Recover the amino acids of this structure.
């Protein structure tokens, strides 16, 4: 009973907040609705018994990706009138994308119910007494180790690429060399002098 | 506790629901009281180190000072700036406060005394602490004021940076404990150091991680010396500048509840949690919750001590520490630990 209530609660909030992402006028509000949608999707994952995926969803999407979105949206100076002005111009393209998506959905459901590729049988979870993390770990580090490492390398390349693309060398910046500062002793920087009367100090 | 309610003749669903509510209240209400007292303790320790008296007027030894402050802000008027984004302005402190309470669900207070004994406990804590950013960043943006906005940007960059190294540090602990469950992590520490000391921190491979975790938790809770989000000489009061009354109080409570949480995490992950410090039978006569509280209070004392003695970091130094020192060291340490474990435990 309680699972059913939880499922409908999470599912309704996911759909409602996903709709609000599009309908909200303020982009910052949009991002907040998106975060709510992520969060409730994680709740759905929990109900499906995939607690590891649920936690990763919150950590990665809510904790990192959405924060980046929020940063970008907050920094941008968005003119709402200009945003709405483009609506008619992009309507044909948007409509086309919507039609393609709808057709694909219909085809996918049709193919799935026809059962040609037998996808449904493959998706059925294997019941096991081991925890989620152990199962995923065993699969990732034995059967799919090369795919897993390839994904890691792709991510590494993407990261280095992003750093190289955005890295700029600026002239005229006096950077701080911390180890040099730590190594510096008082006798390198100061000296004690005892000048006689009427005599100055040489600098 | 579910069994207790079931023995009163309730069905399982009702008993479970009541037991969960009772558990939540049993954690949240003492936590609020603890936050009030810990604010008092913070001010008292700070005062003692600065050779002052600290709060000493309200109640005996000033013990009721926090409650008087709470009553004061409760009676104040809530001011919302005219150009602020009303909804988000009011939601932001609620998020901070709620998130600070949420993480306590998986903290083990004694063997089995935990509200939600889930097997992804540590990941849950990481997930919840990554939500903490939103309270700060939203309050800064919704205030529609320059100082809070700068502070919010600083705070979110700082929190995200240190969460990365905290994640790697926690992986080190998980590798040794062989579990993400908080209770299992505590149990794995029994007799970990030479067979007598109940602490991961006593392990030479984990001690550097324990030190880094302590420093990172200072940064994660934006305590001195990393309190750049509230640097009063630059940013007035940071993201709280425009807040007043209860919305300010919620930030205040959430901040200290987070500090307590980080102290608890230090105690649970590295220093044995509810286990006594030495694996010696007579020490187990003392209830585990007392050992845990003693460790939490010790770490809180360290937090206050640091706040009273260490000058504030500059922002670029803070980022350098997070990205150029903690991140590489914790990454290398993961290699070291997993190599060591492969050699000794799994070969």
């Amino acid at each position: 009973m309680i699972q059913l209530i939880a499922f409908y609660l999470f599912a309704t909030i996911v759909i409602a907040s996903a709709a609000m992402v599009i309908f909200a006028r303020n982009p910052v509000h949009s991002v907040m609705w998106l975060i709510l949608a992520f969060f409730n999707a994680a709740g759905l994952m929990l109900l499906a018994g995939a607690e590891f995926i649920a936690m990763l969803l919150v950590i990665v999407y809510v904790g990192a990706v959405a924060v980046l979105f929020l940063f970008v949206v907050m920094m941008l100076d968005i003119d709402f009138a200009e945003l709405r002005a483009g609506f008619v111009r992009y309507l044909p393209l948007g409509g086309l994308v919507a039609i393609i998506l709808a057709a694909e959905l219909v085809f996918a459901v049709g193919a799935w119910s026809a059962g040609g590729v037998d996808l449904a049988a493959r998706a059925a979870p294997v019941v096991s007494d081991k925890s989620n993390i152990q199962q995923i770990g065993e699969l990732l580090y034995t059967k799919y180790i090369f795919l897993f490492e390839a994904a890691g390398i792709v991510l590494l390349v993407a990261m280095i690429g992003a750093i190289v693309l955005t890295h700029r060398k600026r002239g005229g910046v006096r950077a701080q060399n911390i180890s040099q500062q730590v190594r510096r002793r008082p006798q390198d920087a100061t000296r004690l002098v005892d000048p006689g009367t009427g005599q100055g100090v040489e600098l | 506790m579910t069994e207790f309610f079931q023995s009163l003749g309730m069905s399982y669903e009702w008993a479970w629901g009541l037991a969960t509510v009772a558990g939540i209240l049993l954690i949240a209400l003492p936590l609020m009281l603890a936050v009030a007292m810990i604010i008092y303790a913070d001010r008292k320790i700070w005062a003692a180190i600065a050779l002052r008296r600290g709060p000493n007027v309200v109640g005996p030894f000033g013990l009721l000072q926090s409650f008087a402050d709470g009553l004061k802000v409760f009676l104040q008027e809530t001011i919302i700036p005219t150009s602020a984004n009303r909804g988000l302005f009011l939601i932001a402190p609620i998020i901070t406060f709620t998130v600070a309470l949420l993480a306590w669900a998986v903290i083990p207070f004694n063997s089995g005394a935990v509200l939600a004994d889930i097997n992804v406990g540590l990941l849950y804590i990481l997930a919840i602490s990554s939500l903490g950013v939103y309270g700060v960043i939203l309050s800064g943006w919704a205030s529609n004021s320059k100082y809070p906005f700068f502070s919010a940007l600083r705070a979110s960059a700082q929190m995200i940076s240190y969460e990365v190294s905290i994640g790697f540090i926690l992986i080190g602990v998980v590798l040794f404990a062989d579990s993400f469950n908080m209770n299992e992590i505590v149990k794995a520490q029994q007799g970990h150091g030479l067979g007598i000391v109940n602490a991961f921190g006593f392990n030479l491979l984990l001690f550097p991680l324990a030190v880094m975790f302590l420093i990172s938790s200072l940064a994660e809770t934006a305590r001195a010396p990393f309190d750049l989000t509230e640097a009063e000489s630059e940013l007035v009061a940071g993201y709280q500048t425009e807040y007043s009354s209860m919305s300010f109080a919620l930030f205040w409570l959430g901040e200290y509840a987070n500090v307590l949480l980080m102290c608890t995490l230090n105690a649970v992950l590295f220093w044995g949690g509810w286990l006594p410090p030495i694996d010696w039978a007579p020490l187990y006569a003392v209830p585990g919750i007392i050992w845990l509280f003693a460790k939490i209070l010790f770490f809180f004392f360290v937090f206050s001590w640091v706040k009273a003695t260490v000058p504030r970091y500059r922002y670029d130094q803070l980022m350098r520490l997070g990205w150029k020192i903690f991140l590489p060291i914790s990454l290398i340490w993961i290699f070291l630990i997993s190599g060591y474990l492969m050699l000794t435990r799994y070969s």
